[in-house]
Amino acid sequence: MILNSKTWGGEFMWKELQEWLKQDLTIQELKAKAKELGLSVRKQMTKADVRRLLERYIERAKLSEPESVESISSATSQMQESTDQSQQLPPKEDITIPDSYKKDKLVAMPINPQWMYFYWDLSDANASLIKSSNISKVVLRVYDITYIEFNGTNAHRTFEIGIDVLGIRNYYLNVPVPGAHYLGEIGYYDVDGRYIPLLRSNLCMMPTSSPSQSTRERWLDLRKHRRIVMPASGMLTPVIERVAGSVQGLESLFRTSNAGSFSFARLSGKGM
Questions:
Q1: CA atoms of 55 and 48, how far apart (whole Å)
Q2: Domain that holds residue 143
Q3: Between 5 and which of 61, 121, 167, 187 could a Cys-Cys bridge form, CB atoms 3.0 to 4.6 Å apart?
């Protein structure tokens, strides 16, 4: 059994043991050394048996030494290769977000009942057009088209803001009516005062500023992939308080009266 091929004082143990065995040793000294090395020593073993046991230990230690050195060398070379590979990694790609994607786009988004948000991008052609001398003013125009089919001129109300569409790419707008449907548009006025649209946004439905008055329930059937709208169930209704002796008292009087007639004096409690 090999416990360790290393050392006293930095030398390999088997080398010292080999030199030590060259001495004229007693059987007691040999057995003590074998036990110190963790070897199994039986009482009936002779001096020659113990010496052979120690010699076999030395042979096994010699065989294990190159493997240990090789494994250390292999681990060192792997670490060196890993270090070299990390040093040779390609440079990181530039992931900077561009200022423009060169595509015409205008998007409207609701933020809350009073505020909406616009962002846009322009193609090179429209950017060059806006820079031309034939344009006097660029505006962001907003149409209120709540519950109508918009044809470009029939909006409930229209308002616009002069903006630098090339200098900025987004705009926050305070809207006058919560719950309305708005449509955004970027356009310009030429030198003759004519308005010419360039980009139009999606329809933006603003949230209301008060709880919904609708009592309908909206459900989604996941198995059939359909939406279900139905009247609300379990709605709260005011409790009608019953006054003792009112309706129930009249019914009991009708049941007990043979002729079906009675006096108001009795109902009012007078003379009772």
A1: 10
A2: 105-205
A3: 61
pTM of the model: 0.49
Tell me the pLDDT tens digit for each residue of 155-195: 999 999 999 999 999 999 999 999 999 999 999 999 999 99
- Does residue 139 lie within any of the structural domains? yes
In total, the chain counts a number of residues equal to 272
As separate numbers, helices (DSSP H) first and strands (DSSP E) second, the chain gives 6, 9
Residue 171: inside a domain: yes
Distance CA 48, CA 155 (A): 115
Cβ-based neighbours of 207, under 8 Å, separated by 6 or more:
110, 112, 113, 178, 179
Q: Please state, in angstroms and rounded to a whole number, the distance separating the CA atoms of residues 185 and 139.
A: 8
End-to-end CA distance of the chain: 119
Give a yes or no: residue 33 inside a domain.
Answer: yes
- The CA-based angle 39-41-43, given to 5 degrees, is 175
Of residues 134, 145, 152, the one with CA closest to residue 194:
134
Domain match, 144 and 75 both: no
> What CATH number does residue 198 fall under?
2.60.40.10
Q: Where are the alpha helices (DSSP H) in the chain?
A: 13-21, 27-36, 47-87, 124-131, 247-256, 264-268
The pLDDT tens digits of the residues spanning 75-126 come to 566 666 666 565 666 777 777 888 889 999 999 999 999 999 999 999 999 9
Same domain, 60 and 137: no
Round to whole Å and give the CA distance between 221 and 230: 13
In a domain, 239, yes or no: no
Cα–Cα distance for residue pair 63/54, rounded to 1 Å: 14
Total domains in the fold of the chain = 2
